[in-house]
């Protein structure tokens, strides 16, 4: 038996499903999850000593690859000074200043420990600031596992959602309206029916939790207009896209395409922690003044703004601001996705692909899907076969057809070439 299998059996005895986050269990693709022993640069190594080119990057944070020297140095030096104080530090101010410098839509930011915590707090803030309860989310977008966000669509626009998880009471879901992504007529109608009672709309600008689906520009523009018209706050969940699709995140791209575009509240995670538990949400001073200790919206955390995590995040953000960083990362990602598309074409496999900065998605279908239902029509068997063939060849892709992929600055041209060679074989 392989070490991975031995560890998986041992893990299943003491951890539900053997994992601490469900997607790691490989349930969607079958087979044994790899137990990772270490990472270096673009690679991760498993318990059997196999090396993989890593296109998950811890689901987004590892934009510099594993063990970047400057980040490692910052973390070690911070850890020597102390792990946690539960009192303010200068590094929290430095990180907040660094984030705000790159995200002009925010004047203030609050640091937390996970994306889930950040979106949960953003919605509470939106509700507190507007005095309204209801909000809109979209099918296929994931914003963490807060009760009110684990909700699927009700039977029509007049009815609110139903829980997607056991343990979430119907009453908690009754304020969440779930709409189809990129469906303009439905959005108009929802605002007509409920606009005046909406606290906010939360959306992934590029939905990485249904692989890679962009919010259409005209849709985003109208969404912004409707939110403003009805006094609902627009919350952009950039936990995945933040500092990953570009230095100014996805909102920077939309601001270039829609004059004056900006969200009311933004949520970040992943890259801003560089692989450590760190996330954030921010907005104008006017909105943020509602947060405790200034205002009545309570929000807190023992480890919020942790000194080691902020050191890791700060070192990461400093590296990605170096001249040419995103140009090089974008070119790398482009060469990967163009190469994959060419290989698929040679083999007559239906294929479409998209990318931005260091984030990409590919679909085993001719046209890029625009919403969740189409994403889920992917030929699952073909995807699973492809996933396992790539894994056997030492290429670690996301183990589910609805997950995005990530390229880091550590991936070399040789890594991309090796990936394409493996894909040639896997798609045959
Ligand atoms: C867009 C988005 N929002 C929120 C979250 C939740 O973040 P976390 O897993 O850190 O709680 C995720 C996690 O993948 C995400 O992709």
From TrEMBL:
Its main location: cytoplasm. The keyword Cytoplasm applies. Its EC number is 5.4.3.8. InterPro entries: 4pyrrol_synth_GluAld_NH2Trfase, Aminotrans_3, PyrdxlP-dep_Trfase, PyrdxlP-dep_Trfase_major, PyrdxlP-dep_Trfase_small. It comes from the Bacteria. Keywords: Cytoplasm, Isomerase, Porphyrin biosynthesis, Pyridoxal phosphate. Its cofactor is pyridoxal 5'-phosphate. It holds the Pfam family Aminotran_3. The modification N6-(pyridoxal phosphate)lysine is found at residue 270. The keyword DNA damage does not apply. It catalyses: (S)-4-amino-5-oxopentanoate = 5-aminolevulinate. Pathway: Porphyrin-containing compound metabolism; protoporphyrin-IX biosynthesis; 5-aminolevulinate from L-glutamyl-tRNA(Glu): step 2/2. It is found in: Cytoplasm. One of its GO terms (molecular function) is glutamate-1-semialdehyde 2,1-aminomutase activity. Homodimer. Belongs to the class-III pyridoxal-phosphate-dependent aminotransferase family. HemL subfamily. This is Glutamate-1-semialdehyde 2,1-aminomutase.
